[in-house]
């Protein structure tokens, strides 16, 4: 039993029909690997950008967004060569990938359906999250922006997840570390919880996520575990008094 092994009690939610997790920066500590790979590869092409700057500039976007930013920085000529080198560094770096501390226990303790909704490609998801045991905790319910017309911040991806599970959007909870993900949740009519990894280099991150529509913000997995029942109660209140 995963709960017994973790020594943690189940998280019982009465009103939530589906918990939708973002992947990068919520489930897996991939942002630091991606930022370092971007910083080093940009450096090879004469663009000075620290890993923290790359983290602030690139995280949370779809891969098309990253391409567009790099096109601005590098022009079109070197772009294919740049992305070939970046991909080599990124996927090599995933050898050191770890789950965000404590998040696996939270996912396994949930007593309701859960899935992943990520702006990353299916290719990247299988080579990042797919390397870890955490993948099994989602039983194949991993959804990529590849599957919809518009990535986050459009609501397409969270709405696809709700439809797949037959869940009402107003009873879905989205956990995301980026403004794009929070905006997508709000646009889908879902309850958004902002997630901030302890040690995130970006300043005032909880305030940023609240400004984009996060109703709650959890700083780390233990805070998320404590907050989910509160979010569940909030959904229950809203059902009784939608006005
Ligand atoms: Mg993210």
Describe the structure concisely.
This protein is α/β, with parallel strands linked by helices and 243 residues long. The protein has eleven helices and six strands.
Overview of this protein structure:
The chain is α/β, with parallel strands linked by helices. The chain folds into 2 domains: about 1-30 and about 100-240, Rossmann fold, CATH 3.40.50.1000; about 30-95, Orthogonal Bundle (DNA polymerase, domain 1). Helix content is about 45%, strand content about 10%. The chain contains 11 helices and 6 strands. Strands 3-2-1-4-5-6 form a 6-stranded parallel beta sheet, sandwiched between helices. Helix 2 crosses helix 3 and helix 2 runs antiparallel to helix 5. The longest helix has 20 residues, at about 220-240.
How many structural domains are formed by the residues?
A: 2
The number of helical elements comes to 11
- State the order of secondary-structure elements, H for helix, E for strand: HEHHHHHEHEHEHEHEH
Number of strands: 6
CATH top level label of the largest domain: Alpha Beta
Mean pLDDT: 92
Strand line-up across the major sheet: 3-2-1-4-5-6
**CATH architecture assignment name of the largest domain:** 3-Layer(aba) Sandwich
Question: CATH homologous superfamily of the largest domain, by name?
Answer: HAD superfamily/HAD-like
End-to-end separation:
42 Å
Helix percent band: 40-55%
Class computed from helices, strands and strand pairing: alpha/beta
The radius of gyration is: 18 Å
Portion in beta strands: 5-15%
Poorly predicted regions are 1-7
């Amino acid at each position: 039993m995963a709960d017994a092994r973790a020594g943690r009690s189940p998280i019982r939610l009465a009103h939530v029909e589906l918990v939708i997790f973002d992947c990068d920066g919520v489930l897996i500590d991939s942002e630091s690997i991606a930022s370092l790979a971007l910083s080093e590869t940009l450096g090879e092409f004469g663009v000075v950008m620290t890993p923290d700057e790359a983290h602030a500039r690139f995280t949370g976007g779809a891969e098309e967004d990253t391409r567009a930013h790099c096109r601005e920085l590098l022009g079109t000529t070197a772009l294919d060569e740049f992305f070939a080198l970046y991909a080599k560094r990124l996927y090599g770096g995933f050898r050191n990938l770890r789950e965000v501390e404590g998040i696996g226990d939270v996912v396994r303790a949930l007593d309701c359906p859960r899935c992943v909704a990520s702006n990353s490609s299916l290719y990247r998801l299988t080579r990042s999250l797919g390397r870890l045991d955490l993948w099994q905790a989602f039983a194949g319910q991993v959804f990529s922006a590849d599957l919809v017309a518009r990535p986050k911040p459009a609501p397409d991806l969270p709405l696809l997840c709700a439809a797949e599970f037959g869940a009402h959007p107003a009873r879905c909870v989205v956990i995301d570390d980026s403004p794009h993900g929070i905006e997508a949740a709000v646009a889908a009519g879902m309850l958004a919880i902002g997630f901030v990894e302890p040690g995130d280099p970006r300043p005032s991150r909880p305030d940023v996520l609240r400004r984009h529509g996060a109703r709650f913000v959890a700083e780390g997995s233990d805070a998320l575990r404590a907050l989910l029942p509160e979010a569940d109660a909030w959904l229950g209140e809203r059902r009784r008094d939608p006005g």
